[in-house]
Amino acid sequence: MWNMRKTPSFLVFLLFYCRRMDILRKNKGRRDFLDSLSEHF
């Protein structure tokens, strides 16, 4: 465990940014999956 005070703030921002983009990517994939299902039925 490292000292959070020595951690650069941009690394923390990058971590949350990547996590948020991953969530958005999963939501987009789920929506595209539902759209592809609606095309077949």
Q: Which stretches are low in confidence, meaning pLDDT under 50 for 5 or more residues running?
A: none
Helix content: over 70%
**Averaging pLDDT over every residue, what do you get?**
79
The number of helical runs is 1
How far apart are the termini? 52 Å
Q: Describe the main β-sheet briefly.
A: none
Principal-axis shape equals rod-shaped
The class by helix and strand makeup works out as: mainly alpha
Radius of gyration: 17 Å
Order of helices and strands: H
Strand content: under 5%
DSSP summary, beta strand count: 0
Features:
41 residues; single chain; mainly alpha
Secondary structure layout:
Elements: H1 9-40
Detailed description of the structure:
By secondary structure, the protein is mainly α. It is 78% helix and 0% strand. It has one helix spanning 9-40. It is rod-shaped. 0% of the residues are buried.
Short description:
With 41 residues, the protein is mainly α. It has 1 helix and no strands.
